[in-house]
Design goal:
Radius of gyration: 18 Å
Number of domains: 1
Number of strands: 12
CATH class: Alpha Beta
Bound molecules: zinc ion
Largest sheet: 5 strands, parallel
Strand content: 15-25%
Helix content: 40-55%
Number of helices: 14
Structural class: alpha/beta
Shape: globular
CATH topology: TIM Barrel
Length: about 300
């Protein structure tokens, strides 16, 4: 038994995940009375362009381990390559609005997932502001008020994206992997927007790893959760909301049996920000995470 608190962040990457995975997760969270934060990809679904990643080291290993085609669907993998990418925000407005109507927190994952994940570090400050601005505009169009949070696609963040967040006056952001909330600093510049990092490995980083057979994942996650009073778990609409929905349902039930408490990220952010002097400043650096190819934003 534990008094640990867990916040769940749902990254929604694709059109298919929005239409199927999101309603599945809303129903599941309602069933267990668990709060969550949904971060949406709001522009075109060009997931198929991820095929380019095949040429990156580590991708083959991941495909072999996790059955990417089975989890994402062939249609999704062709979006933006052989088929024009469907515009997720325009096409699924009622689904997105319903998530908030059901009492969940909503925010920005990205405009174009592939462009952000593969291209952020090549973009000029103006390009980053424009790309994030497009996501903000669609968010406002759908939800009628401005976004208060964002969590970057592929955990890709840099000085330009943090400046864009400060400009958008977000309440907090969740781009990084790390251990506890902090104000991010890059090259000596400290940014104003609180970072609440993801503290736990994602399911796709563990699946297929010989040390983590699926029937032991509950216990493994729980052993990590017990180690600290607060945690953030990032899940994916396309994975925990679809292919691994039954596993995820069992997992939530298991956590409730262990008396794990659930909290919403925005509530946590608000309570932290009542005493901003107690929030440390930490460098945000490029780092590697086991089970994930390339580098991502890591709390130093
Ligand atoms: Zn994503």
């Amino acid at each position: 038994m534990t008094n640990s608190q867990l916040a769940i962040k749902v990254d929604v990457d694709t059109d298919r995940g929005t239409r199927i995975g999101v309603p599945n997760l809303v129903n599941l969270f309602k069933q267990y009375n668990i709060p969550a934060t949904f971060l949406f990809s709001l522009g075109p679904d060009n997931t198929g362009r991820a095929i380019k990643r095949i040429f990156r080291p580590g991708f083959f290993k991941k495909v072999a381990r996790t059955n990417v085609v089975g989890m994402y669907g062939l249609r999704t993998l062709l979006n933006g390559v052989l088929l024009p990418g469907p515009h997720i925000g325009k096409r699924n407005k009622p689904i997105l609005q319903d998530v908030r109507a059901q009492g969940f927190e909503v925010g920005i994952h990205c405009y174009d997932h592939i462009r952000w994940q593969d291209g952020l570090h090549k973009m000029s400050p103006r390009q980053v502001f424009t790309e994030f601005g497009k996501a903000r505009d669609i968010f406002k169009h759908i939800f009628t008020d401005r976004a208060l949070t964002a969590g970057a696609a592929g955990w890709q963040a840099n000085a330009h994206s943090l400046a864009a967040y400060d400009d958008a006056k977000l309440l907090y952001a969740s781009d990084a992997r790390g251990t506890s909330p902090f104000f991010p600093r890059i090259n000596g510049v400290t940014y104003k927007t609180l970072q609440i990092p993801t503290t736990l490995p994602t399911l796709d980083e563990l699946l297929g790893h010989p040390d983590h057979p699926e029937h032991k994942l509950n216990q493994y996650y729980y052993s990590l959760i017990e180690k600290a009073p607060t945690h953030v778990l990032t899940i994916h609409a396309e994975i925990e909301g679809m292919a691994k929905l039954d596993w995820f349902s069992d997992f939530l039930q298991f956590l409730q049996q262990q008396q794990t408490q659930f909290m919403q990220l925005s509530q946590w952010a608000k309570s932290l920000l009542t005493q901003p002097k107690h929030i440390p400043v930490c460098d945000l650096v490029e780092g590697k995470v086991p089970g994930r190819s390339g580098t991502l934003a890591v709390q130093a």
